[in-house]
Amino acid sequence: MAQELEQRGFLLFAAEAHAHAVRAHRDPRAARTARTRAVALARRCQGARTPALSGLVLGELTTRQRQIVTLAATGLSNRQIAEKLTLSVRTVGNHLYGAYARLGASDRGALPWLVELPDAQPA
């Protein structure tokens, strides 16, 4: 259904369908694929955010990864996060690297789409 919506040009509906599929999949790999597709389509919708698209994946992260990803999504640098949490910059980078793999994100730019931030405006 999501692919059909996408082919017809209903990108936001397709993104939402993929987001709902994330929760429905029992196979973690299929869920990750659906999540990645949902995020990619949502990025093409000029910053539109819906409840289905907000906070898709934080449950897959460790508590520390969730904390670091949330701070990174607000725009803090690795150094700022390290100072705030009294960690080394390298430890912050390692946690982010592991989180990117779990989230299906390639870089920091995708984080605002994956984390529910009440006042954030994704780029």
What would your notes on this structure say?
- The protein is an all-alpha fold and 123 residues long.
- It folds into 2 domains: 1-52, no CATH class; 57-123, Orthogonal Bundle (Arc Repressor Mutant, subunit A).
- The protein is 60% helix and 0% strand.
- It has helices at residues 2-7, 11-24, 28-43, 63-73, 78-85, 89-103, 111-114.
- Helix 2 (11-24) runs antiparallel to helix 3 (28-43), helix 4 (63-73) packs across helix 6 and helix 5 (78-85) crosses helix 6 (89-103).
- It is elongated.
Number of helices: 7
Separation of termini? 28 Å
Strand content: under 5%
Low-confidence stretches: 118-123
What is the arithmetic mean of pLDDT?
Answer: 82
Name of the CATH class of the largest domain: Mainly Alpha
Question: What is the total tally of β strands?
Answer: 0
Q: What's the number of domains?
A: 2
Briefly note the structural class of the backbone: mainly alpha
Largest sheet: none
Organism: Streptomyces machairae
Domain HTH luxR-type: 54-119
Protein name: Helix-turn-helix transcriptional regulator
Keywords: DNA-binding, Transcription, Transcription regulation
